[in-house]
Specification:
By secondary structure, the protein is of the alpha+beta class. It has two domains: about 1-105, Alpha-Beta Plaits (2-Layer Sandwich), CATH 3.30.70; about 105-185, SH3 type barrels (Roll), CATH 2.30.30. About 20% of the residues lie in helices and about 40% in strands. It has four helices and 13 strands. It has helices spanning about 15-20, 40-50, 85-95, 110-125; strands spanning about 10, 25-35, 50-55, 55-65, 65-75, 80-85, 100-105, 130, 140, 150-155, 160-165, 170-175, 185. The strands form three sheets. The chain has a six-stranded antiparallel sheet with strand order 8-12-11-10-9-13. Strand 11 and strand 12 form a beta hairpin. The longest helix has 16 residues, at about 110-125. The protein is globular and about 50 Å long. The chain starts with 9 loop residues before the first strand and ends with a strand.
Length: about 190
């Protein structure tokens, strides 16, 4: 079976800049997609050229028979985040194969803030992992290092202390390892 080429995590590359201005009807939403169709839905959205997307993933290098392979592990399997005019995004549900449902969050500021934070975590090259269950934790702000100024929650699990960014909208989260000296309570 041929391996699909890597896909960009967001398109257009300035989709997070556009979220701040221009079209007042533009908004962020999520497409719930069929299993293992996230990348194909993203490719279709790119072909349409009217709706931007964000598909957060973490790259991992694995060894198969003495061969190094880089794999894109999706942080939120089953979801593709879309940005565009409300009518364009809604119409994608009927024109793009693989989309099951269109979910729109009424709290656009919170959704945009969480997605932008996750993008920054990925761009910084930190090891981001998906957290499937939201756990109660303490609100914190990172005060040192390249992620200085980001706010989220802190949790402790088997891998130690983790900085958690929640997407309450779809009840999912992403986390990155932190040192206790890097964070302060808010």
């Amino acid at each position: 079976m041929p391996i699909a080429p890597p896909i960009a995590s967001c398109w257009p590359s300035n989709v997070f800049d556009e979220a701040q201005n221009e079209d007042p009807t533009a908004c962020w939403s999520a497409f719930q997609v069929r299993p293992r169709c996230e990348k194909s839905v993203s490719r279709e959205l790119r072909k349409l050229d009217t709706v931007g997307y964000f598909l957060p993933y973490a790259e991992e290098t694995r060894t198969y028979q003495r061969r190094q392979v880089t794999v894109q592990n999706l942080l939120f399997p089953g979801y593709v985040f879309a940005f565009g005019a409300s009518d364009d995004v809604r119409s994608c549900r009927y024109t793009v194969r693989g989309i099951i449902n269109h979910l729109q969050d009424p709290d656009q500021a919170s959704l945009y803030g969480s997605l932008a934070t996750i993008k920054k975590l990925i761009d910084e090259g930190t090891e981001v992992t998906a957290e499937q269950k939201l756990k109660p934790g303490m609100d914190v702000e990172i005060v040192s290092g390249p992620l200085n100024g980001l706010r989220g929650k802190v949790i402790r699990n088997s891998r130690g202390l983790r900085f958690l960014v929640q997407l309450n909208f779809i009840q999912e989260a992403a986390s990155v390892a932190v040192d206790g000296s890097m964070v302060k309570a808010v």
